[in-house]
Amino acid sequence: MGSNYRPETNTVLSAVDSMTRPFGSLKSDAGAALLLALWALFLLSAMVIAWALNINSRLAVSSNANRVLEAEAMACSGADVALSREISPSSPNLHRQVGDGESYDVRITGECGRLNLNFFTQGEDPNRLAILRQYLNLKGIDLNDLDVMIDSLLDWVSPTKGLQHLNACPEGDDYHPAHAPLTSVEELKKICGWTEFTSKPGWDNDFTVAPTCGAIDLAYASREVLRALGIPDDFVDRFLQVRQGPDGIDGTADDGQLDQQAAFAMLGLNNAQLLLKGIQTPVVFKSPNAVFRILSAGKSRGVTRSVEMVVQKQVIGIGRPQVFSWKEL
After folding, report:
1. Are 208 and 185 contacting, i.e. CB atoms less than 8 angstroms apart?
2. Which among 115, 226, 265, 307 would be 20 to 30 A from 130, CA to CA?
3. Phi then psi for 327, rounded to 5 degrees?
4. What region, left, alpha or beta, does residue 140 occupy, with left being phi > 0 and alpha being psi -120 to 50 degrees?
5. What is the pLDDT of residue 101?
6. Is 312 strand, coil or helix?
7. HSE-up of 149 (CA within 13 Å, CB side)?
8. What is the DSSP letter of 103?
9. Is residue 60 part of a domain?
10. How many domains is the chain partitioned into structurally?
């Protein structure tokens, strides 16, 4: 019961089954070996791809580092050219293409066209302080804030400790005025009352602390500085139109040719008016001090690096330029 085959038949089937089992085992082992081989090949491929990506990343980083160095070299080259006594702000040598994708562009502006904060606070001359106050007023500073800013600035640069100006912030554990002339324009950020003003873009465009700058050089003064001198807007605009030429940019070949007498006449600044305004000393046209701000931008295939210097060129052909400040931007 339970089977229609004779015992002899079952014996034969059992023998056949035992003969086929080794073949099935061989197929299973071959499949496992194939899977292992494929897995090993996959791992090897992944390692090769990762290695290739790592090499490519290193090459990209190295290439970018080289371009950065080349751009810095171009910026320094342009600045070095600008230091030459013979180079003027409109010189074509300030703009040059060097090699494949490398270049420098340099802009030179007169530093003494800015308000020298140490000069305008020295001795607390009311006429000079009036110009500084007017400039800040034109920048939209409220009268109450203006009093705090000016008095705190005077406290900061005053060598006498313990004598506080009326509207200045008091000294305390967290506030210690230097009681010395400013060493940089950035130092204004440390002075009480100046935080909001110094947080605005371009706040320092019209300030300097270059030691040889005193009188404002009208050849480089901005519109805001000229207005701070009490010059009417229409006089200022007419003067700038002639000074900058058709392109409206200072330091280019089409700039108007003016001397001090012509410049003063265009601005309505005759001797009587200068004496009346009390600004006879603080203004000049084309200062002989020759202090310049040099901004050199170097490029190398899409990478740009810039350096900025404030220097005094030598008037005569001997000696090296005096560098007042230098920084990378």
Report:
1. yes
2. 265
3. -155, 155
4. left
5. 86
6. strand
7. 21
8. E
9. no
10. 1
